[in-house]
What does this fold into?
Amino acid sequence: MSVLILADHDLGQLSPSTARLVTAAQGLGDLHLLVAGQGASALAAAAHFAGVSKILVAEGPDALPTADSLRAALVALAPGYSHIIAASSSLGRDVIPGLAARLGVMPVTDVVEIVAPNRFVRPIYAGNAFEHLSSSEPLHILTVRTSVFTPAPLGAAVPVETLAPLAPGRVTTLRAERSAGDFPDLTSAAVVVSGGIAFGSVEKFAALGDLATALGGAVGATRAAVDAGYAPNDWQVGQTGKIVAPDLYIGIGVSGALQHLAGMQGAKRIVAINTDPEAPLVKVADYALIGDLVEIVPQLIAAFRKA
Ligand SMILES: Cc1cc2nc3c(=O)[nH]c(=O)nc-3n(C[C@H](O)[C@H](O)[C@H](O)COP(=O)(O)OP(=O)(O)OC[C@H]3O[C@@H](n4cnc5c(N)ncnc54)[C@H](O)[C@@H]3O)c2cc1C
It folds into this structure.
């Protein structure tokens, strides 16, 4: 059996989720990695992960590969594979459903464990239960929550096969730019510091950035904080935001609504900082600091900087 993994990349860099996808797929069969889009040949040089036996390269016309043009390439490649696997990222979530529809196959999304070639585990009910499902499809098309897998190390150089360039799709990416801030990728960061509406202003929310920097982590936000304009949309953690599973998650002024918990319950250690000892996030936290964030956050920043 051969397995096709779709490499995720962003502005000329492989996304950390690509190495994690390789770990998720280990043991399923012969692993091929497709690096597609503008600059794919250069990116392929950094994609020789242990366990991958071949890298396929398809250059593309767009600054970021569009689902439209990728899908056509994947449809052509599909007959040679038992599995096509992508990250549950913006790209994977965009490409996979349409690909599955084109191939007449039911996709399995948000996989957190691959038990056997046709048996998968994924969260349901906003992360409150896990569904174990077995699929009788001849081709398994999956999206994987990569944050639960460790990154595969780099391995020996493997053959690189150059495919025909991606054909332009109906949608074109005109420009792509990195959002402000120099934080690690939220979905694969080891430490995530999230803030809620309780911060009260953009200026106060910015303190989270200092705390995240002191810890080498990424910044997350609740939907309420995003809606209030304190944080950009792509920092939102939760059911309708990003799914994170860091080693350490610090939620500050975050109540822990069900929809927020759905995005971070996989964290290995949870710390809640809240004035309300009854807040749902306090209930699920490993450690809680009950108090006012206005007093606690500056003290934490000072302490971590000193440490
Ligand atoms: C369909 C749907 C999808 C949604 N998707 C998401 C999602 O993806 N992500 C998400 O986050 N939400 C999502 N929501 C919204 C969610 O239900 C909550 O409204 C939101 O998470 C609450 O954000 P919050 O914790 O910032 O605010 P609140 O719930 O208002 O909580 C504020 C918290 O701050 C504490 N606090 C107040 N002052 C201080 C202080 N000075 N110091 C310390 N603590 C303080 C309070 O005790 C409280 O616990 C969704 C809702 C719906 C209906």
